[in-house]
Fold these 2 entries.
Entry 1:
Amino acid sequence: MKILSGLDVSKALRIEIKEKVVALKTSGKKTPHLAAILVGNDGASMTYVAAKEKDCQEVGFNSTVLKFDASISEVDLIKEVIKINDNPDIDGLIVQLPLPKHISEKKITETISYKKDVDGFHPMNVGMMFKGIKTFLPATPFGIIKMLAYYNIETAGKHCVIIGRSDIVGKPMSALMLQQNCTVTVCHSKTPDVSVFTKQADIIIAAVGLPNYLTGEMVKEDAVVIDVGITRVADASNKNGYKLVGDVHFESVAPKCSWITPVPGGVGPMTRVGLLLNTLEAINSK
Ligand code: GUN
């Protein structure tokens, strides 16, 4: 069993991004600039946005975080998004989800200019992705594709089973693995027996959000297993008071695998670098 280290791959990709930013700056071109909108004070969202800001600084991008109270109206938030759409200095915009219940995530996502939509959530970008037209890809599936390529994992003709059908991971992942010439099966909460499919899978991508969901008996020998899960589970021994637990029961699954991602240090760092790659690309999309 070998480890697919998102930490190692993301380090290598960040070095490449940094070099490209230096080249942009020295040739007098624009420095990529990411804006993030954060509404309210959800702990996980605040952590994610702070991490994105730190990542931008580390590779030499400019970054702006706009924070709004949870009581902001939908109309006012739409106005803020439009201001950023119209600001030529900002190349990429993300609105951190989830949003408060009184704000439609669909409306906000559709208000972001698809040319600045570095999350790849706008229907225009989703459509282009499904057609295989080059565009912004959602960061997690993008990061996973980059990781598979880095380790030369064979995908053509392989059976890839994806567990989860979210707009952010499962659905886009299925389109991208099809483009990698996999035979793709998508399992979800209404699939009667997920193990029927996972036992046949050459590649499993677990994105259900249930800690330790995928166990050893659900996996065939030599499978490649990608764990997208990052559930926060209370842990008094950790200084944060929680630990991150994946969807894969590592102890029972890892011995059967050819390759497996750890949690943490697997998909998480790849998601972060996926957003940076999109932001770098965004300077060309206006
Ligand atoms: N909330 C959880 N994941 C994401 C993401 O990838 N982008 C945004 N904008 N919000 C999220």
Note: Residues 28-113 form a domain with the Rossmann fold fold (CATH 3.40.50.10860).
Entry 2:
Amino acid sequence: MKPIVILISGAGSNMTSIVQAAQQRRWAERLGAKVVAVVSNRPDAEGLAWARAQGIEGVVLDHKAFASREAFDAQLQTEIDCFEPSLVVLAGFMRILTSGFVQHYQGRLINIHPSLLPAFGGLNTHQRAIDIGCRFAGATVHQVTADLDHGPILAQAVVPVLPHDTAQSLAARVLTQEHLIYPQAIEAWLSKQPSAASNA
Ligand code: NHR
Ligand code: GAR
């Protein structure tokens, strides 16, 4: 079995779309993969309760309880490694990760970012795209490297920016596409992994 661990910070709608795809598209039977845990750096993340109700382990690790980024990442790594994940998925996870953490999960750590990378890395992507007059926006699934929002691209989706868009309306349009491409990109990634399905 290929265990998948998903990291969130908030609503967790991307996490939900991945868990639902895993169920509907029978990842356990077809790909030998299973979402085993959801980890949140925010105790109040809405996605946690939903995951637990699905029988998925929900872990909280509050970054505010740690003196440094390194200390938080070290504990985060310990918690994640309990599940021996084949894949670690950032889904609206809002903490920048140290290079040591990224290196530890090299080749099995991916993120979805709400812009057409390499444009608009970092935060506040939708307002920045509107302000500069972009006609198109979108989302990017990429491998995570130590260089923030710069890893190799696995999937992208494009949406139009409409004349009266606000950051909020554009974010909602982008999010509907995120929910499609993230499960697809993960399924494609799983399909390419050696060692196969069954013995769930
Ligand atoms: N870590 C590394 N090393 N590389 C990447 O590509 C990463 C990463 C950690 C998270 C997601 C990313 C995004 O998709 C991601 C990619 C948070 C911030 C940020 O500035 C930036 C990019 C991303 C996520 N976070 C602030 C911080 O100080 C906190 C902001 C907040 O809490 O609201 O960590 O956009
Ligand atoms: C998504 O739009 C995701 O791309 C973005 O936050 C939203 C999370 O929504 N990620 C980032 O901005 C990372 N910095 P969700 O919690 O409902 O999946």
Note: Residues 2 and 37 are 12 Å apart (CA to CA).
